[in-house]
Design a protein that fits this description.
Strand order of the largest sheet: 5-4-6-7-8
Mean pLDDT: 87
Shape: globular
Radius of gyration: 21 Å
CATH superfamily of the largest domain: Cobalamin-binding domain
Number of domains: 3
CATH class of the largest domain: Alpha Beta
Order of helices and strands: EHHEEHHHHHHHEHEHEHEHEH
Length: 315
């Protein structure tokens, strides 16, 4: 007996859409009433479900909102028009620009599911470039490219996950191979890295950890989605100097700001808060008690921390 499996994509629930696009459920319902988009179907239980085409368009809408556009100005555009507008807004010339050949090679390996070849080429590039250059000059732009390809529907979600897992294997091996600063080394900052409970993306965190380790910091990684109270308790027990948090574009900016405010209050100034990532909360409304750094800024930030603390010790 043979069984026929449908290749038609399964519609996403409203929780799936919130998780995958970063658009809150309440916002989706408001847009549905106000702009007549999205237009969800209903499952046998009467719950909203969203076809893949609508999810892909929502990803593009969310990206443009993060770039400063208002929902009412872009939500009625087609996916193709949104893609063009996104390319123009990020410096393209009327449409999505072609990636450099060296990045396209890695993207092609993702699309053809050659993950062993992808890991091998990433590992070779790491050996040739060194960890810091590998992160800044290859991994960061490649991850942006993969994210854009996923948002525009050129890369399936499982293919984006395959890329994430392959890169994580290479990056984690590189971090383990670096000499870790001794916990008792007073000249090395103790940095705890994690994300807030609503942030499930971990590649930005991993890249930041690699940069910190390369600068001789003592790093303690909690992974992603750590409850706020656990972050505070871990910081106390581990006696950390800095909590470094990553915020992707997918996270709700209000949740990011609220989480940072609560952390600041609970820590009572005992630990520095560092943040990074492409979230709009860090670009337009960054709180004064949070230091925001790009990956390329981490080396200088750690050097400046060392200088400040050396002066305090000398005084």
């Amino acid at each position: 007996m043979t069984t026929t499996v449908s290749s038609k994509p399964v519609p996403s629930t409203i929780s799936d859409v919130e998780r995958d696009t970063g658009v809150a459920k309440e916002t989706l319902r408001v847009w549905e009433r106000r702009y007549d988009f999205p237009q969800p179907l209903r499952d046998p239980n009467g719950e909203r479900v969203y076809p893949i085409e609508q999810v892909q368009k929502l990803r593009l809408v969310k990206r443009l909102i993060d770039l400063g556009f208002r929902p009412g100005k872009v939500i009625q555009f087609s996916a193709e028009e949104l893609q063009t507008l996104s390319g123009q807004a990020t410096g393209g010339l009327g449409g999505p620009s072609l990636p450099p050949p060296e990045l396209q090679r890695y993207l092609d390996l993702c699309k053809t599911h050659q993950m062993e070849a992808l890991r091998r080429q990433l590992s070779q590039a790491l050996l040739m470039m060194g960890l810091k250059s590998f992160v800044i000059d290859l991994v960061a732009p490649l991850t942006t490219l993969v994210g854009d390809a996923w948002a525009s529907g050129q890369l399936a979600t499982f293919e984006e996950h395959l890329y994430t897992e392959s890169l994580t294997v290479v990056m984690r091996s590189a971090i383990f191979a670096m000499p870790q600063a001794a916990a008792s080394n007073l000249g090395a900052p103790r940095i705890m890295l994690t994300t807030l409970p609503q942030e499930r993306h971990g590649l930005g965190l991993l890249m930041a950890e690699a940069m910190c380790v390369a600068e001789g910091a003592h790093c303690i990684s909690l992974g992603v989605q750590t409850p706020l109270l656990d972050i505070v308790e871990a910081a106390r027990v581990q006696r950390v100097d800095i909590i470094a948090l990553s915020f992707s574009v997918a996270m709700n900016p209000r949740q990011a700001l609220d989480g940072l405010a609560e952390l600041h209050t609970r820590l009572n100034g005992s630990v520095e808060l560092w943040a990074g990532g492409g979230n709009a909360a860090l670009k337009r409304r960054r709180p004064p008690y949070v230091r925001v750094f790009a990956l390329a800024d981490i080396s200088a930030a750690i050097a400046e921390w060392r200088l400040r603390n050396a002066n305090v010790a000398a005084g």
